[in-house]
Amino acid sequence: MTNSNILYQHGTLALLVPGLLEGTLSMQELLQHGDTGIGTGEGLDGELIILDGTPYQVDSKGNVNVVDGSFTLPFANSHFAAYNPLTTVEDVKREELKDIVAKKVQSANTFYSIKVKGTFKNITTRAVQKSTEPYATLAKTAENQSIFTRKSVEGTLLSYYSPQIFDGAAVGGFHSHFMSDEHDFGGHILDFASVTGEVTFQQFDSLEQHLPVDNPAYMTHDFSNDDVLGEIHKAES
């Protein structure tokens, strides 16, 4: 029996900062904890979005690939979808959308997800090129990213909201990925001019945080000298 009140998270965004980019969880394992989610592959190999149990990867060339169960990830979120209608929006800017959602859900201090299905105008996404060992820092690796744009595209925005008190484990605020209905465009959302569509909402009362305890590099790393919050905010903005 699945529990839709649990948000599962493997790894932390903080571990990406010093370059702990080894894949420490397989997609097969991740899907045991949800049919919906986001993440990145080993070496920051593209941007992942899971919709209706299907894991899509947007790679640095803009290709959309369905990955298999052996695909590994250093960081990911997943949950079992049980979204409820929240509102409809028409030509709403990105920051306006955030404000509308925040005022309606009144959930600043707990995790939740929103899903927006509709038409997005002047949307910009990105995907990072896969790196190999020895891994560089998050900031250095993220320099090798590709930017993609569409003037108008129909698709799904999947976003997780994390409370500020968890900033570092996740990114405080919204972390959003996108997939077009045609499955030919997507990635980590950098910006969009406006959206018209249906907004749905799902709140979580539990965070299941899974850490890569079998990874020696993670277990022995000293994070005290890393600019965790600064680098996360820079990379995720």
UniProtKB/TrEMBL annotation:
It comes from the Bacteria. It comes from Companilactobacillus versmoldensis DSM 14857 = KCTC 3814. This is Alpha-acetolactate decarboxylase. Gene3D superfamilies: Hypothetical protein, similar to alpha- acetolactate decarboxylase, domain 2 (3.30.1330.80). It catalyses: (2S)-2-acetolactate + H(+) = (R)-acetoin + CO2. Belongs to the alpha-acetolactate decarboxylase family. Keywords: Acetoin biosynthesis, Decarboxylase, Lyase. Signal peptide: none annotated. Its EC number is 4.1.1.5. One of its GO terms (molecular function) is acetolactate decarboxylase activity. Pathway: Polyol metabolism; (R,R)-butane-2,3-diol biosynthesis; (R,R)-butane-2,3-diol from pyruvate: step 2/3. SUPFAM superfamilies: AF0104/ALDC/Ptd012-like. It is an enzyme of class 4 (lyase). One of its GO terms (biological process) is acetoin biosynthetic process. CDD domains: acetolactate_decarboxylase (cd17299).
